[in-house]
Request: fold
Amino acid sequence: MFTPTRRATLAAFVAAVLGASVHLPSLAQEKIKVAGVYTVPFEQQWVGRIHAALQAAQARGEIDYEATENVANADYERVLREYASAGHQLIFGEAFAIETAARRVARDFPQTAFIMGSSGGPQAPNFSVFDNYIHEPAYLTGMIAAGMSQSGKIGLVGGFPIPEVNRLMNAFMDGARAINPQVQFTVTFINSWFDPPKAKEAAFAMVDAGVDVLYAERFGVSDAAKERGVLAIGNVVNTQDQYPDTVVASAIWHFEPTVAAALEKIRTGSYTAENYGPYSMMQHKGASLAPLGTFEDKVPAEIKEKVAARQAEILAGTFEVEINDAQPKP
Reply:
């Protein structure tokens, strides 16, 4: 399992520079033909951030972008092959449940660049990987959650207990413990990437057990929090405008730096198989803590000061949020 540290991150970048590149033509004056293949709907927060970043690149005239949502795992390989055969030079998607099939397609189309969400490492010459390493702002939202909890009980509802989810939850929990070492956690996985009703029911059970702040790793949790009058912490996207009295803070993923880096490599003919994970970190502006907005005057000043100080340390490189991919325990 690939777990980046600052040393590993540097090594990945060095390897990318030294590795063999895909011999794609320089496209400085041409639009790059890009495709997206997603197993969930565009409205799902993780894919939604990827889709929005690529739509923005298309609006700027940089790419021609096509995408397919709700692709079944059994059909994923076929859709990937269709886009590659149609001449798309760069394909984004998520390979978590269909890793073998996606990598097989990449081997069969060595002149096509693939950038896939993946728990594994890059595959030369053309299969790059990425993930939303937003554990740093997740840690900061954990600090805020603990500062806002009256009961000292916080619930976390996640999709699947895979590294990409586990590391965010663990960072959130570490941040909460930094404020209240005695905080108690309840952790539930709904074993689905997009099932808001199921996530909502899991959250209801937590509130019934005394939880007064919920970590909404999945959609549906904030709805439960709103209905029961407790607070929620968002993930990947900021939904406070939809839940102005419920969502206190959110750890935001910005996929734009990843897209920009990939497009530049395609344009210059220097694309190689590499790990794009670092582009999701705060130092690359790939992640951020959302403004407190409607909760600006509700979060205690002492908590806001501690969060601001810790964020400054993260950005300065003097504090490193641990990347812990192990399944979080209650």
